[in-house]
Automatic annotation (TrEMBL):
Keywords: Autocatalytic cleavage, Hydrolase, Protease. The active site is at 208 (nucleophile). InterPro entries: Ntn_hydrolases_N (IPR029055), Peptidase_T2 (IPR000246). GO terms for biological process: proteolysis. It holds the Pfam family Asparaginase_2. This is beta-aspartyl-peptidase. It comes from Carex littledalei. It catalyses: Cleavage of a beta-linked Asp residue from the N-terminus of a polypeptide. Belongs to the Ntn-hydrolase family. GO terms for cellular component: cytoplasm. Heterotetramer of two alpha and two beta chains arranged as a dimer of alpha/beta heterodimers.
């Protein structure tokens, strides 16, 4: 196992469905999905919708739902995905403005179109036309304050590279020189700001709820919801609405959910990798470790995590670059269990 990569596994062979697993200690979201799957006997898809919707309403960690993660223009937009592991249908929205119900909009795409992904303002138009409320301002006093403070800090940290000015709020231009990044700026302030840029990704500014449910009939679904990376360049879409990256499910095998630096992780489709590795006979622990190791070999400083669950209910979490927690609920537990994985 690569150094810096830790894996945690719990064996649940023989557990009676349903089962809910999700990234991070979002207990209320997991409870909502559990109530839906267990007490209401909802399908896996509907339970995922109920769980992710609860997280959106609670604005989990400020990184899910409206009111968080402003982009460079101070606007909050939403990404979400739902995948049915029985039919392999997917619905997703990305960069959606003016509509607060990201996961419900994704389900509308799956249920009422032959498409997989709708983006931007036209995703909002579609969602509203299908009955969701809007248009709604997705910003909040907290997100505006965060954006204002960021502007006062010369727009640092940000996701720009190889541009001029390095320190400041633009407008930005392509920089030909690949050295002397600080130019005539005060050296101490400049290098401190550049150091901040390298730490732009973290749990509370770059996070996703990724949830998997196995329902009473053994069918599997996954879903994600996020408001993306804080201070992202407007128009940026991370891995949240990308099937195979943030989440993937197949009734025949199991499911995976991911969180972290989506700009890096989406280049490797880690959740697709996890599910396919389990299909080839790997247990969830080895599959999760292998998927992140593939990324770490190319990007040793990336931050991310995956949680894997096979069709028998065996689950495992792996992380790289941070401490990760995931939540699990099944019929053997009185309440949500939080499992910590240390990098």
């Amino acid at each position: 196992m690569d150094q810096g990569l830790e894996v945690e596994q719990r064996d649940n062979l023989g557990v009676t469905y349903p089962l809910v697993v999700a990234t991070w200690p979002f207990k209320e979201a997991v409870r909502a999905a559990w109530r839906s799957a267990n007490e209401k006997a909802s399908s896996a898809v509907d339970a995922v919708i109920d769980g992710c919707s609860a997280c959106e309403e609670l604005r989990c960690d400020g990184t899910v739902g409206p009111g968080g993660s402003p982009d460079e223009n101070g606007e909050t937009t939403l990404d979400a995905l739902i995948m049915n592991g029985t039919t392999m249908e997917v619905g997703a929205v990305a960069g959606m403005r003016f509509v607060k119900d990201g996961i419900k909009a994704a389900k509308l795409v799956m249920d009422h179109t032959d498409h997989t992904l709708l983006v931007g303002e036209m995703a909002s138009v579609f969602a509203i036309s299908m009955g969701l409320s809007g248009p709604t301002n997705l910003s909040s006093s907290e997100s505006i304050k965060k954006w204002t403070n960021w502007k006062q800090n010369h727009c640092q940290p940000n996701f720009r590279k190889n541009v001029f000015p390095e320190i400041g709020c633009g407008p930005y231009h392509v920089r030909d020189e690949k050295f002397n990044l600080c130019g005539e700026a005060d050296a101490r302030n400049c290098f401190e700001a550049l150091e901040l840029q390298s730490n732009v990704v973290g749990r509370h500014n770059h996070d996703t709820i990724s949830m998997a449910v196995i329902d009473k009939w053994g069918h599997i679904a996954v879903g994600t919801s996020t408001n993306g990376a804080t201070f992202k360049i407007p128009g940026r879409v991370g891995d949240g609405p990308i099937a195979g990256s943030s989440a993937y499910a197949d009734d025949e095998v199991g499911a995976c959910g991911a969180t972290g630096d989506g700009d890096v992780m989406m280049r490797f489709l880690p959740c697709y990798q996890v599910v396919e590795s389990m299909r080839q006979g790997m247990d969830p622990q080895r599959a999760a470790s292998d998927a992140l190791s593939r990324i770490a070999r190319k990007f040793p400083n990336f931050v991310g995590a995956v949680v894997a669950v096979n069709r028998n209910g065996v689950h495992a979490g792996a992380c790289h670059g941070w401490t990760f927690q995931y939540s699990i609920m099944n019929s053997t537990l009185d309440d949500v269990e939080i499992i910590t994985v240390v990098s």
